[in-house]
Write a structure and sequence with these properties.
Layout (H helix, E strand, L loop, with lengths): L1 H20 L11 E4 L4 E3 L8 E5 L5 H6 L3 H10 L4 E6 L11 H11 L5 E4 L4 H5 L4 E2 L1 E5 L5 E5 L18 H10 L14 E2 L3
Parallel strand pairs: 3-4, 4-5
Antiparallel strand pairs: 1-2, 1-5, 3-7, 6-9, 7-8
Organism: Alishewanella agri BL06
GO molecular function, one term: isomerase activity
Keywords: Isomerase, Signal
């Protein structure tokens, strides 16, 4: 009986630990150290004092393709012009859909007219799992103090149709605007949609 109780307590502790590990809006964003397409190392602490956007991406995903018809590029341009650091994160594992090498990543950025601050690689999935990133796209906004302020979908219509962008509520854009104004996003969490990340 005692052994069963100990096992139950251990299981509860593990469960509580896994809950604590999940990212929480209003709490410090999970730390990361990753390389970009130029081989440069980036850590979250490097961006102290700056607002940061994390965008999980997979160029083969139709939901990503939808937003790269101009919407994502415009968002990148608008926010980086306001000194926001925009990191496009590729968590696709080697051999899985969406995985690219550095040269292919740079080619995609150029050919699509994308404008992130950097494209970063998370081949082992450590960063993606720390953020509980589930889909491409999956969007996050971190404020100047390193606090996670928004996580979720790019907008309210979970489709791969470009024409739906105009009528959707732009959750992510609204959240970024709020953070830039020193306000709390509403909603601060929304359901992400897209292709599952290929860990």
């Amino acid at each position: 009986m005692k052994k069963m109780k100990l096992l139950a307590l251990a299981a509860a502790a593990v469960f509580a630990g896994s809950l604590a590990a999940a990212p929480q809006v209003g709490q410090p964003a999970p730390a990361f150290t990753v390389k970009d397409s130029a081989g440069q190392v980036h850590s979250l602490q490097d961006f102290a004092g700056k607002n940061v956007v994390l965008e999980w991406t997979n160029h083969d995903c139709p939901f990503v393709v939808k937003h790269y018809q101009g919407n994502m590029q415009q968002l990148q341009q608008d926010l980086t012009a306001q000194d926001v650091v925009w990191l496009s994160v590729i968590s696709s594992a080697p051999g899985k859909q969406g995985h690219v090498n550095q040269a292919k990543s740079d080619e995609l950025t150029s050919s699509r007219g994308a404008a992130p601050t950097a494209v970063i690689f998370d081949e082992d999935g450590v960063m993606g799992k720390a953020y509980d990133a589930r889909t491409t796209p999956h969007m996050y906004v971190i404020d100047k103090n390193g606090v996670l302020q928004y996580m979720g979908g790019i907008d309210s219509i979970p489709s791969a149709k470009v024409e739906d962008i105009q009528t959707a509520t732009p959750y992510f854009a609204n959240a970024a605007k709020a953070v830039l104004a020193g306000q709390a996003p509403d909603p601060a969490v929304s359901r992400p949609y897209g292709c599952s990340i290929k860990y």
